[in-house]
Amino acid sequence: MTDEDSDAKPTSRTDIERASVNPYATSMRPSGSEPEPAASSDQIGTVLAFDGEITEVDIRMLIPERGLWILLAVLMWGMIIPAFAIGTVVATTNMFFSGVDSETVLGILIGVFVAIGFAVATQYVAPSRRTRRALKQRPDLVGRAVGRFVPSGLLFNDGERTHFLNGDYCKRAETTKHGIRVPLLEGPYVQLYLAKRLFERFDETVWKELQAIWQQPDAKPLDRDAVMERNCQQLGKRPESAISFDGQVTLHVPVDHAAVRKIMYRNGGMIFVYGVAALLAWHFGHWFIALGALILALSTVRYFYNSWRWMAIPTQNTTWHQHGWISPEEVVSVTETNGVRLFRNECQRTEWIGETLVWHLPTNRAMYFSREHFESDEDWNQISESSSLESVPSIE
Hints:
By secondary structure, this protein is α+β, with helices and mostly antiparallel strands. Among the domains are: 66-124 and 256-310; 248-255 and 315-390, PH-domain like. 44% of the residues lie in helices and 22% in strands. It has 11 helices and 14 strands. Strands 1-2-3-4-11-10-9-8 form an 8-stranded antiparallel β-sheet, sandwiched between helices. A 3-stranded antiparallel β-sheet has the order 5-6-7, with helices on one face. A 3-stranded antiparallel β-sheet has the order 12-13-14. A hairpin with a 7-residue loop joins strand 6 (179-183) and strand 7. The chain crosses the membrane at residues 68-92, 104-126, 263-281, 287-305. Residues 1-41 are annotated as: Disordered. Keywords: Membrane, Transmembrane, Transmembrane helix.
């Protein structure tokens, strides 16, 4: 097991803070408001509804690779660390009786260093530690969550926004004895963690039926515009006063080399510890331990190499096609796979980047609009002017 972000593409500012350039990434901040997600005809019958608060404990119990960590902890604390500790004690005892020599002292120091390194590494990848790091990056992973899984996907509300994730997201969802986790495609640990206690009745049969539906290709595939309009309708009725928009957004975002470098250093240190452990275990005849440490070292080399490649990449292009509407009070914006409905007063400030209007939202989110997204100059001017009037200073 390696660093949490080592296999993810280390783009800029924690995976380019993908949410900062993609408004469709899920936000789950707690709120007292009662959500009312829009209903659709496919929600009758095959439905799994949930309602409650996602807590840090839920994330810790559902975080990926929890079982692998338990196996790693048993291996480290049950075999490898005790073996190094016992070997160090025996070598130290023999040294007192047979005399001090530099080779024995060096072996003892290396044994102590490796044992401590294994202990620290095991703690670093523990579910509780990974949960804290995930929440430091995305504190909105905890909080209000009410919604339902339906044949078209997942519709839920976080108390402030209504979100829709289609079957492409849901078919990647995984179940454990503790609940369901739905990947949000922002990194290995940024997921929607839904404990089974949130469901009034979690029916395994219904879940399997939904999974089968999500895995099936559409009998009559729709074109992109039709798909996005369908996703838009999932989020509720369009007000008569709303202005429609549709178009492509392309951004050139710098890669955060400082974050990539940290990942490289961490994985490099783990490679060193595993390598030294393999050499010492081989030297003292512990072939099984040497083989295990060597496998860990070689698997970590791949993650180190992936990070090293990103150091030569200055920027990454991020592109998506968006569709939706803007009313005086709300915004609905969707892609082919997901969407969000939120209030316009969430915009903390506006900014112009060239000819592009940027709405800056909480938690490093942003929405991007340009003239070609709107049908007429009148619509574009109305959005531009109203955005300038609504802008408020961002809270640092």
